Every structure is written in structure tokens, then in C-alpha cells.
Amino acid sequence: MMRGRSDGAQKKRLLTSVAVVAIFVVVLYFYFGSKSNGESALEYGSRSLRKLGSSYLGGDDDSDLSSKQDEKFGLEDGEDGIVSKSFPVCDDRHSELIPCLDRHLIYQMRLKLDLTLMEHYERHCPLPERRFNCLIPPPAGYKVPIKWPRSRDEVWKANIPHTHLAHEKSDQNWMVVKGEKIIFPGGGTHFHYGADKYIALIANMLKFPNNNLNNGGRIRTVFDVGCGVASFGGYLLSSDIIAMSLAPNDVHQNQIQFALERGIPAYLGVLGTKRLPYPSRSFEFAHCSRCRIDWLQRDGILLLELDRVLRPGGYFAYSSPEAYAQDEEDLRIWKQMSTLVERMCWKIAEKKNQTVIWVKPLNNDCYMGRPAGTQPPLCQSNDDPDAVWGVNMEACITPYSDYDHKVGGSGLAPWPARLSTPPPRLADFGYSSEMFEKDVELWQRRVEHYWNILSSKISSDTLRNIMDMKANLGSFAAGLKDKDVWVMNVVPKDGPNTLKIVYDRGLIGTTHDWCEAFSTYPRTYDLLHAWNIFSDIEKKGCSGEDLLLEIDRIVRPSGFVIFRDKQHVIDFVKKYLSPLHWEAVADPTPDQDQEGDEIVFIIQKKLWLTSESIRDTE
């Protein structure tokens, strides 16, 4: 009997031990995640896979940079313990992660935000301990996106598996689900029967020739606020007009994702408490079609922000019930709004049916002629209207520069001559026309060199959405003028604020800090151009590995990244090709212009799926 009890106890202890070991193995599996075989794992804040950077795309500007100036991302220390053998794959539920616009992060951090001011839709980046050190997986059944121009009208449903807008906006022709595709008939909340007809109507109201809104090339850059799925901007492209379509990651949370999947320029943002990431006098035309914005709040601060980014003589087309309805509340709003814009020196250019179009003054005469104490006031003379990154909006009118006041407008050439004509604001940077022209020629040669390297990998319709991560004067984008692409020109916040030159050339872009994540969905750009970006963030002490992960998040599967940087940076990137599932398009090549020690290295991102995605597809 004793022996029997002893054998039973031993068996019990053995089973317990086996169970403990099994649990330990399972914990290790979920902790270290999958390797390149596509198994899914999620890692919150672990430092076990890296030693290269202390932050997840959120560098500390006050850190001791002197000790990191020569760090070179740790390459001189050798590979051991520095470069991870693989990156885990984020859980499938994070396939649409936008790190600095993550509502779950806001809830977890218990940030005290004013919802009435839209602060919860503004950028809030994760702290180091909340970073995602993993690769963002594509959704189940992901396919290489449909090519432009077909993509304007249809996308693969599997790439953005969200159909709630099709049901919610079924009576407005935003989008329709049809088999494996989502179709975009071109409708909107205010233009059910098509953006093309609506655009022609606006041009007719302004008596532009041939009902063409570009007005002989005088209107080139447009700002569409509360853009929906960006059909308004999409239909402007055929008129040689490029729109910055803006919407927040709100209840219609995938609208900007749809816009970019369609190949239409768009950006995640909101009119909240911070200035828009665009310089003053960037747009000839602004548009709001039932954008649900309270323009009267906080002394009209949002309308004044719109005024800041409009050029002299710029238009604001407003299609909303307040412009035509006769009920008491709409009449009250219309009366107050009319009074506000009159004090801002705006005038009605035309009002017809359900749309009103205001126009800004061409010079400062009206501002100077207002009675003393008129509200809103003019901004202080020491206010920089082009300082935008993290800068709070102000309820004041931005007067024109002496040059703009004198010439009575922006002094810009019409499109397309505008692209290659030295803009007046070049003088703000001490650049001459000769310097500008040399920059244009230099980047034209460089673009041709890039395309020669890519020639075996791309055809005329392979690329559509392109990002220049350090745009300078926008000459990289200008070098692509004959290709059917558009470029998001990004000007880093710490360098020369040349974004106004980009806009003055008829291009679009935004300001950004590359120590943080960009405001876009995963898999939204076909090609990224990274010119000295890694050398720049290295000087700030930010993590090169984090930036590689962010680039991988942004670029589409089968997309490309062009690195132009120092040799040690290229060596650094090459060590991560396998962990990131990238492959070199060609061997690194020295700068053909021999103007420095820059090396060109182009990679292609492989298309991969997690095992869970494959099972879901099957």
C-alpha cells in the first residue's frame, strides 16, 4: 500500500513538472514571437531584440547628444548583441497601427484630453516602454494594389476590409462593395451625383474659362478639409490640380486609408488645437463640404487657421446647410459666420444654391483700414506664420509680407511653369535663382539615375504614391513631373523650413520629425526616398532601428526605398535586410555627381503574409 501511494505521488510530481515545463515553453514562444515563417507574435516594450535606440520613434530632444554624435548606430561595436536575428510580427489586430494616432494608447495612458477641441485626434506618440518592436502584418488576403488610374475608382476589399462606410453612406455614393472590390462612384455627402459635376459647378460660379477650376493654371494647390474618401481631390487631378485631402482618424476611421489606397494624395490630421503642418500661404483654394466643423468656436480660431494657409486672393468654398437653410439655428450660424468673415476682410465671390465661395483680400489694405479694436486682431509682428510643428493655433489674422502686399498677390507663375520658376520666397533663405536652377538640374540627373537602377523592377504604372522624406526645395518631386505619380514632400522640422518653397512650386507636403512615427496608415506608399535622414537623426540621438521599422510600416509590400546617405548608414541598413524581409535591388553605388560621400542603395520590400492570414484567406 505504501509503495502504491509512493508511485502515485511520483507520477503526480512528474506530471506537475511536465506541465510547468510546457507552460514555460508556451510563454517563451509568445514572448519571442514568430520568425520569418510568418507566425504571429506581439511584443510590448521589450528591449530584448535591440540595443540601438532607447526610444520608439519618440526621441528626447534634450538628451546628451554629444555622447551620441559618433555612435553611428553602434556599427563600430560589431554585430554581436546589436542586430536582431529577426523581428517578431505584430498581432494581426495591429495591421492598421498608426503609433502616434492610436486611440488604444490614449485610453491606456489615460491622457486628459479635451474632446470638444478634438485633442484626441491630434498626435500623441507612445513612450519608450509602449513601443512596438515588431513588423506590421498585412491583412488576410492582401493583394498588390490596383494600379492608377483604375485605382481611383476601385480597390481590393481585402486590403482595407472595412465596409461600414459603404453602408453608412449608401445614399451618398461614397463607395459600394462589389464582390472582391470596393467601388468609388465619385459621390460625396454634398455631391451625390459625382465630384466632377460639383467641381464644374464651382468653376462656373467663379466664371472660370471652360468651367475648369484650375483657371488657366492659377489654381494649383487645394486644401480639402473633412475630405471623406477624397473623391473631390481625386477628380481634381485631371485638371492639373493637386489637393491635400485632410481628415482625422475618427468614426469614419478608414477614410484616409481608402484615399491613399486609391492613389489620391491625403493626410491624417485635424483642425484641433495645433497649427496645421503647412506653412502660411500654401493653398489657392480651400474646400469644406459638410465637413462638420464648428467654425465659430474659440473666436473663430479654426477659420483663422484656414486663413493662415490660404494665399492672397485665395478662395474658400463652403457647402453646408448654413449656407442655404432657413431654420432658426442655421440662420443664426450663417449670420455669425458672415459677420466673422467680414471682419476678416473676406468677401463673397459667389453664392448659389447650397454653396458659398469667399475670397481673401490681395493685400493688407483692408486689415489696416479696420477700426481700432476690431476682432479678430492681427497677429503679433514676432509671430512666425510658418512655424507649425507642435505650435498652438492663435485667434489672429496673419497679415501678408511686404512683398505680397506690394505685388497684390503671391507673384507665382501659373502651372506648369510654376514648377521650374524660382519663387519669390526663395529670398527668405538667401537662395539665388542660379542656386535654384542648379538644384533642379542636380535632382533631375539623380532621378534619372534612380530610375535606371529600378528599370528592371518597375513599369510605367508600378509606382503611384511616393514620399520624399527630406524634400528640401522639392526638386526630387519636380524630377518626376513626367511620371504618373504624386509626391508627399516632407520637410524635417529641425532643418530649413523650405516647405513653403515646395508649395510655391505647385507641389504639396508636410512638416515632420523623423524621430516619431508619420501620420499615415501602414502600407500606403509605393516608394520612399531617404536622403541623409539617418545621418540627421543620428545627430539627434534617435534610433536608426526605429526608423527602419517605421519605413517598413509605411512602404507597401513590393514597394521600394531609396537610401542616399553615408557609407556607414548604408552598411547599417544592409545588416537589416533579412530581418525586415527586404532585398537589395542592386549593389550600393557612389554618388555619380561626386559632390560628397553619399552612397545610393535601393531595396524592395517582399510581400509576406502571416500563417494566420493565410489560414483566414483559405
UniProtKB/TrEMBL annotation:
Q: Which GO terms describe its cellular component?
A: endosome; Golgi membrane; trans-Golgi network
- Principal location: Golgi
Single GO BP term: methylation
Where exactly are the transmembrane stretches of this chain?
Answer: 12-32
Q: Which UniProt keywords apply?
A: Glycoprotein, Membrane, Methyltransferase, Signal-anchor, Transferase, Transmembrane, Transmembrane helix
Q: Which InterPro entries match?
A: Put_SAM_MeTrfase, SAM-dependent_MTases_sf
Write the Enzyme Commission number(s) for this entry: 2.1.1.-
Q: What GO molecular function annotations does the UniProt record carry, in alphabetical order? A: methyltransferase activity
Q: What Pfam families does this protein map onto? A: Methyltransf_29
Keyword Endoplasmic reticulum belongs to the record:
no
Question: Which top-level enzyme class is recorded in the Swiss-Prot or TrEMBL entry?
Answer: transferase
**Topologically, how does it sit relative to the membrane?**
Single-pass type II membrane protein
> Domain of life here?
Eukaryota
Compartments it resides in = Golgi apparatus membrane; Membrane
Q: Does the keyword Membrane apply?
A: yes
Q: Which family does it belong to?
A: Belongs to the methyltransferase superfamily.
Protein name per its UniProtKB record = Methyltransferase
* Species this chain originates from: Solanum commersonii
Upper classification of the organism: Eukaryota, Viridiplantae, Streptophyta, Embryophyta, Tracheophyta
